């Protein structure tokens, strides 16, 4: 019987439309240094859209939280150069965290302007949805700036609906995952948009 080289769970190589190859994989503690370096390459608006307020740098506490997700309730993927963790420049991060109620989970995605517009955000969101379904989450939500129309459009195309929030300038994008949910939001493995 021939042995196949299999990638570890949640690892996949993808090629973007511009030909750039990336490795999507779970975040690792070794990603802290490259993430700090990549953060300095982000535009202020990218940071504001992800963190919902201006942020000049990722401090040690935040970096630790980002790179050490609690496996019982958090999941985070990076899209990075196909190099070992700690050496690979990280171009995108997607996270989801299950709330204390065990039924809802909050997502957040950041795709650098160097690789956005190539379907990577959609691809990462599908992976977060797949993980959440596996954890029997019933509802996924994310807070998005009203001005972040690309994220709202992406979420809506995957079945999310928009809910108002009490915070001015923010909307909540919500995806209901009924127990017998179909795999509609997770079909497709290759970034297309």
UniProtKB/TrEMBL annotation:
Residues 22-178 form the N-acetyltransferase domain. Keywords: Transferase. One of its GO terms (molecular function) is acyltransferase activity, transferring groups other than amino-acyl groups. Gene3D superfamilies: 3.40.630.30. CDD domains: NAT_SF. It holds the Pfam family Acetyltransf_3. This is Protein N-acetyltransferase, RimJ/RimL family.
